[in-house]
Amino acid sequence: xxxxxxxxxxxxxxxxxxxxxxxxxxxxSPSTPIFENALEHCQSxxxxxxxxxxxxxxxxxxxxxxxAPWSVELxxxxxxxxxxxxxxxxxxxxxxx
Length: 97
What we know:
By secondary structure, the protein is mostly helical. The chain has helices at residues 5-26, 35-41, 57-85, 87-96; strands at 50-51, 55-56. It has a two-stranded antiparallel sheet. The longest helix has 29 residues, at 57-85. It starts with a helix and ends with a helix.
């Protein structure tokens, strides 16, 4: 069973999801971004350059700064979901052997 390709194919996403779950507990996400820090971070971005549908270039920079922790957590949660989906096929494979 351990020398079979399908065993490794099914266990790899589960191991990755366990590592992602570990990173959620070990590396706590940073606290909610503060707007004043976003202003300091995006101070060098030109505020006179206006996009017709998104606001100014500085507004876009501030949006990206404020949403950065949320997007990292989303990627980690997608890895977790992907790994948990593979648990059922792995259990079925192990029971068949």
